[in-house]
């Protein structure tokens, strides 16, 4: 297995993986965001084996005005549901963590749905700590997995 930066030809597989995570994106959706995402302070890595891409993690970096150090935010993280517990998730998180540390980030944050208790166990095993209370005000309805299917 290797971890590498994602390239535009990976987008069909990323659409499949994001769908598994509950975010329905078509390849066209991802293509439309590709250049903008890559122009930001962000990374997208994939885990691949001999059969193809089996996981993805995206990470953005935030430098708030009120603190002296930036921090990392994992905005998407998924390993194909048919191959979980293969080490791909740990390898992806380790890659994201190494980049955050190299950039001098004070910490890494991520959000995880309450309906993913196995993911919560993974994060805790890796060393993440649950920090309760997060408030969100939505301006547009988020895409839901039951409304669209991948291309």
From TrEMBL:
> Could you tell me which InterPro entries the record lists for this protein?
Acyl_CoA_acyltransferase, Bact_Acetyltransf, GNAT_dom
Molecular functions (GO terms): acyltransferase activity, transferring groups other than amino-acyl groups
Which SUPFAM superfamilies does the record associate with it? Acyl-CoA N-acyltransferases (Nat) (SSF55729)
Q: Which key words tag this protein in UniProt?
A: Acyltransferase, Transferase
Q: Where is the N-acetyltransferase domain?
A: 1-151
Q: Which domain of life is it from?
A: Bacteria
The cross-references to CDD domains, in alphabetical order and at most eight, read: NAT_SF
Q: What is this protein called?
A: GNAT family N-acetyltransferase
Please tell me the species this chain comes from: Rugamonas rivuli
């Amino acid at each position: 297995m290797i971890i590498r930066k994602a390239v535009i030809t990976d987008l069909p597989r990323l659409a499949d993986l994001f769908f598994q995570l509950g975010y329905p994106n078509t390849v066209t959706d991802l293509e439309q965001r590709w250049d903008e995402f890559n122009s930001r302070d962000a990374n997208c890595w994939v885990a691949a084996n001999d059969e193809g891409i089996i996981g993805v993690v995206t990470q953005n970096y935030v430098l708030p005005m009120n603190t002296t150090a930036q921090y990392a935010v994992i905005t998407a993280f998924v390993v194909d549901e048919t191959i979980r517990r293969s080490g791909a998730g740990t390898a992806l998180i380790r890659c994201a963590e190494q980049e955050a540390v190299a950039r001098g980030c004070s910490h890494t944050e991520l959000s995880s749905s309450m309906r993913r208790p196995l993911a919560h166990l993974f994060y805790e095993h890796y060393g993440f700590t649950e920090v309760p209370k997060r408030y969100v005000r939505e301006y547009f309805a988020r895409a839901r997995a039951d409304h669209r299917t991948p291309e």
